[in-house]
Amino acid sequence: MNRQQLIEQIFAKRSFLCVGLDTDLKKIPQHLLKEDDPIFAFNKEIIDATAPYCVSYKPNLAFYEAFGVKGLVSFEKTIGYLKKNYPNHFIIADAKRGDIGNTSAMYARTFFEEYDVDSLTVAPYMGEDSVTPFLGYEGKWVILLALTSNKGSHDFQMTEDTNGQRLFEKVLEKSQQWGTPENMMYVVGATQGRMFEDIRRIAPDHFLLVPGVGAQGGSLQEVCRYGITRDCGLLVNSSRGIIYASNGEDFAQASAAAARELQQQMAIELQQMGCFR
């Protein structure tokens, strides 16, 4: 999916919602545990219920790799189901890969050739040669970690060099020499508030993947106030607040209601910012 196709989906649905498929067997409804593949069974119902209200899905690999081969089979089945039944939804593999060049090239082959997802989260710490192997695939995206929402983000990301430039600013500035707004996004946590102004000063045109709205305390309104652009430029992720809206047999309906509520808030934000065309 290219940038224009993603923008068209956002404006058609009046939504920039990404649903995080962080599926934990300890949290899904108990009646699903009798299924042959309870992770996929849960994901399938969540997807069918929320697809009208979102433009993207983001399975987090940690929740699948924790179950070994069975978990990876569930991940692959989830990707296959999305591609077959919801081909207009943008698929993000949240794997945070990044290593020396030849290793990154194999990670890129895994996710862009074998699984054929639209995008992959990548850690920038090892620099250009660890990131560029992911950028050689037409129509695929790198989503680079920039300024995250966790408490420990300040340990490194906010440190300053002798010129007063913070590390996350260096990541944003330097990485734009490797990729473009057509194939690179950035992860910026929703809890960062007005820091979005600093992000947009350096990267005014790139899409931002924004986790942390809802369960982590981030404000959708604040994210939009400082981070939205004429093309929207945002994919706001919600995981726990949607997929675990209920742990009963009504879990799919509850997830749909939670996703619909966020979509309606997003439509208002898009309208207020004059983003509709």
Description:
This protein has helices spanning 3-13, 38-50, 62-65, 68-85, 101-114, 128-131, 153-156, 167-175, 195-202, 220-227, 240-243, 251-272; strands at residues 17-21, 56-59, 90-97, 119-122, 141-147, 184-188, 208-210, 234-238. It is an alpha/beta fold and 277 residues long. Strands 1-2-3-4-5-6-7-8 form an eight-stranded parallel barrel, surrounded by six helices. The longest helix is centred in the last third of the chain and has 22 residues, at 251-272. It is globular. The mean pLDDT is 94.
List the defining traits of the structure above.
alpha/beta; 12 helices; 8 strands; eight-stranded parallel barrel; 277 residues
The end-to-end span amounts to 20 Å
Computed CA radius of gyration, to the nearest angstrom: 18 Å
- Overall geometry: globular
Please work out how many helical segments DSSP would assign.
12
Largest sheet: 8 strands, parallel, barrel
Report the uncertain regions.
Answer: none
Helix/strand-derived class?
alpha/beta
What percentage of amino acids are in beta strands? Answer: 5-15%
Mean pLDDT: 94
Strand adjacency order, main sheet: 1-2-3-4-5-6-7-8
Helix content: 40-55%
H and E string: HEHEHHEHEHEHHEHEHEHH
Number of strands: 8
In short:
With 277 residues, the chain is an alpha/beta fold. It has twelve helices and eight strands. α10 links the parallel β7 (208-210) and β8 (234-238).
